[in-house]
């Protein structure tokens, strides 16, 4: 309507002034309801053509969308294990800080496992003390076996010396018996040394490994116990949290609730523009937005990113082929808008419905001197008609609250 009014001032109004003052035709006389088309046909035709052209230029070079919102993500609150709720630390709606406990699961089993791991460490420490005593005992056995071996060797050497001097003084059976005794006592020494080495290995290798395993089991049990207390991973706000003691929670089927990050929906807007404007939308474009949760306010913004893919065209491989007729509706280009000034979105509630305009600026091309005079004029016109869209946005910001409160369904 605004474009039609502007164009009529350039076409219909001059045509009427010519008819009125040059030809002397007046409304109600020569110009009536039935003859207005014939009398002002040139102005009306030019007005329609100019209006269509202006709307095309405005909407193509200065895209607009009503599909804009400060979207946010609600993070589900889930424990890492199944369990029954033992205690809840927050209310239905409450602000939480990072690391603050939200609720606790029943931890009887985890506490029992933790105590068993502690007992295992104590048991291993006691075994190490006993192993030190066993080493001392093994040392004594080695010394006893070596003394017995030395005694048997001395006795065998004495008998052999007597046999060499006078073979009749020492029976061969005694020499054989002494040799066997020496061999047996050498085996006793080897057995005692092996027992000592085994005790040393048990104290220096086996028991430390068992203690390390027990300490790892203790740490694992402590981690499992800590997991029974679900804490906030970031600063945010818990909403509609109805979990109570005695409820069963499951990380796969039944989350406990949702937590909304503190900065969610306060960093920028996500807007969906038409596909025909893909060549116009570029990062760095100036933009404006108005939101229903902050009426009668225009928020200066800037385009920071455009998504390179259209979500409507995605498909997931499966057992059925994709029919492209299902994509007839098409999709939009997702554009990220951020406030031009700090705290620009203050007062805008996350998830609010917004209207956004993006404006093309050809100032750099015009002052660069790389374009000719005619094209420079055309670029000036393109930039100037952005004022029309800015005026439309301000009218929408003025009417939107009234339209919602008065004409909206209640």
Report on the structure:
With 410 residues, the protein is an alpha+beta fold. It has four domains: 61 residues; 140 residues, Elongation Factor Tu (Ef-tu), domain 3; 61 residues, OB fold (Dihydrolipoamide Acetyltransferase, E2P) (Beta Barrel); 102 residues. Helices cover 48% and strands 18% of the residues. The chain has nine helices and 14 strands. The strands form three sheets. A six-stranded antiparallel β-barrel has the order 1-10-13-12-11-14. Strand 11 and strand 12 form a beta hairpin. The longest helix has 58 residues. The protein is rod-shaped.
Compact description:
This protein is α+β, with helices and mostly antiparallel strands and 410 residues long. The protein is built from 9 helices and 14 strands.
Overall pLDDT, averaged? 83
Beta-strand residue fraction: 15-25%
Helix and strand succession?
HHHHEEEEEHHEEEEEEEEEHHH
What multimeric state do the chains show?
single chain
């Amino acid at each position: 309507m605004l474009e039609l009014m502007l164009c009529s001032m350039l076409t219909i109004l001059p045509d009427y002034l010519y008819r009125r003052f040059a030809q002397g035709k007046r409304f109600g006389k020569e110009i009536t309801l039935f003859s207005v088309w014939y009398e002002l046909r040139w102005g009306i035709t030019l007005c329609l053509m100019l209006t269509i052209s202006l709307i095309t230029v405005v909407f193509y070079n200065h895209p607009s969308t009503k599909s804009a919102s400060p979207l946010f993500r609600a993070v589900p609150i889930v424990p890492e294990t199944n369990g029954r709720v033992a205690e809840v630390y927050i209310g239905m709606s409450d602000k939480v800080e990072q690391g603050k406990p939200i609720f606790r699961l029943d931890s009887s089993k985890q506490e029992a496992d933790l105590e068993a791991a502690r007992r295992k460490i104590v048991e291993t420490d006691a075994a190490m003390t006993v192993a030190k005593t066993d080493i001392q005992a093994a040392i004594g056995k080695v010394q006893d076996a070596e003394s017995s071996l030395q005694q048997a060797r001395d006795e065998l050497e004495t008998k052999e010396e007597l046999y060499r001097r006078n073979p009749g003084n020492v029976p061969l059976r005694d020499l054989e018996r002494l040799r066997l005794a020496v061999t047996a006592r050498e085996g006793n020494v080897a057995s005692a040394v092996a027992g000592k080495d085994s005790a040393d290995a048990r104290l220096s290798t086996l028991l430390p490994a068992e203690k390390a395993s027990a300490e790892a089991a203790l740490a694992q049990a402590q981690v499992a116990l800590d997991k029974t207390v679900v804490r906030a991973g970031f600063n945010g706000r818990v909403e509609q949290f109805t979990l109570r003691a005695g409820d069963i929670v499951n990380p796969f089927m039944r989350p406990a609730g949702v937590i909304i990050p503190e900065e969610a929906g306060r960093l920028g807007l996500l807007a969906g523009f038409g596909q025909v404007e893909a060549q116009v939308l570029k990062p760095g474009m100036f933009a404006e937005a108005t939101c229903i949760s902050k009426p009668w306010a225009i928020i200066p913004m800037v385009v920071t990113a455009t998504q390179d893919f259209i979500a409507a065209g995605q498909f997931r491989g499966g057992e059925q082929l994709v029919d492209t007729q299902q994509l007839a509706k098409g999709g939009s280009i997702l554009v990220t808008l951020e406030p031009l000034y700090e705290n620009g979105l203050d007062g805008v509630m996350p998830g609010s419905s917004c209207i956004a305009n993006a404006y093309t600026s050809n100032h750099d091309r015009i002052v660069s001197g790389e374009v000719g005079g005619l094209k420079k004029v055309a670029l000036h016109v393109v930039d100037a008609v952005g004022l029309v869209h800015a005026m439309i946005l301000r009218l929408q910001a003025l009417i939107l609250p009234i339209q919602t409160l008065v004409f909206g369904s209640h």
